[in-house]
Here is the input.
Amino acid sequence: MRLLLVRHGEAEGNRDGRLMGQSDLSLTPRGRAQAEAVAQAVAARERVKALYASPLARARETAEALSGALGLPVGTVDGLAELDIGPLEGLTSAERLARYPEFSDQWERNAARAVLAGVEPLAHLQERAWQAVRQIADAHQDGETVVSVSHSLAITMVLCKVLELPIDKFRNLQVGLTSISIVQLQDSRTRLLALNNLSHLAEDLLPAPGSQIETRDDR
Here is the structure.
């Protein structure tokens, strides 16, 4: 199975520079335009068998654009949801640092070991996201192409698993808004075929530089 890992379009939190985990925020008008662009690109380039998405609004809305272009229903998979960041929801990076300095220091030094009550550990996110991917793979035959719409950290955790990278190396991987990354899962073998493809976006729809750094997107 070829799995296209698509990140959602720009949501209100991305635009406003606030931390989003499982906040159920909608796409901005720019995010909807990004979603339409990735939908048209996937429809033109791929023969897609099935479409899945995180249950969060920004991923569902992006998937709905793909659904319209592909003529496929959207299957919701809870394991594709973003990291649950609990008390950090809605904070700016400066507010997180001021309120939770010890956690913020841990997160910068080694996010895989950072601990804060109410914040889901990265190892747990990777386990549930990978299980979701394996369940999708088990439902499809070799050679089929499937799309999943998810989130920055959920996608990078899957990519770390595919590449056999330690969790704390996730910052070495970037997945922009509505980027396409492709992995192949066949038997027990996994391969990365593409990473962070944004060629479908016009220049005015490319993610702003600030929306891609770790403290300004879905973490």
Observations:
- Helices lie at 12-16, 29-45, 57-70, 93-99, 101-110, 122-138, 152-163.
